[in-house]
């Protein structure tokens, strides 16, 4: 015991290295999960595997949505659900039920996607629902895997944002003519 207490600097160094190691290990768990995320909404991870499975289930049911549209709807889904749950203006309806019935073994993520789309298409959100949704959207902490693009805020459309490119592709054929060559 005397050797350990005789070297307080050594003890502090060992404890410091142990603490750094523990923080690194704990932080690494979240990092790996974030790497596999299609998006994160207010700390809730939307996994790429869930997006892919939803995309595949929709495609098998002859519903063709691009993957970034699937991600957009899954990002909006919890915010939309919160907005209408306060007023009760929309509950899963016959449109939702018929679509889910056409997707054998629909996952929870696929059901969330279908619910968000059915809600938007129903146009049953009250002005108060829309205001609550937009306020929640502005406060939301949303990060998207660059594979799908970025969140592009909008004042229009049913969800008031899209996931895609923020700016158009700057390489446009014809806009940058080839330089003349000497003959």
From TrEMBL:
Organism: Terrabacter terrae
Protein name: Lipoprotein
Highest taxon of the lineage: Bacteria
InterPro entries: Trigger_fact/SurA_dom_sf
């Amino acid at each position: 015991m005397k050797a350990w207490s005789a070297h307080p600097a050594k003890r502090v160094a060992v404890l410091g290295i142990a603490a750094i190691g523990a923080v690194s290990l704990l932080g690494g768990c979240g990092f790996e999960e974030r790497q596999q995320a299609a998006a994160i909404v207010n700390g809730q991870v939307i996994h790429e595997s869930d997006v892919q499975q939803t995309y595949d289930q929709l495609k098998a049911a002859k519903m063709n949505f691009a993957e970034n549209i699937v991600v957009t709807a899954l990002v909006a889904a919890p915010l939309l659900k919160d907005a209408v749950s306060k007023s009760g203006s929309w509950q899963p309806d016959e449109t939702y039920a018929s679509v889910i019935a056409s997707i054998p073994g629909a996952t929870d993520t696929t059901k969330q996607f279908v619910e968000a789309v059915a809600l938007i298409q129903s146009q049953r959100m009250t002005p108060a629902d829309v205001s609550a949704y937009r306020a929640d959207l502005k406060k939301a902490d949303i990060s998207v895997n660059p594979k799908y693009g970025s969140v592009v805020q909008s004042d229009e459309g049913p969800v008031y944002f899209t996931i895609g490119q923020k700016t158009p592709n700057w390489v446009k054929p014809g806009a940058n003519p080839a330089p003349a060559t000497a003959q």
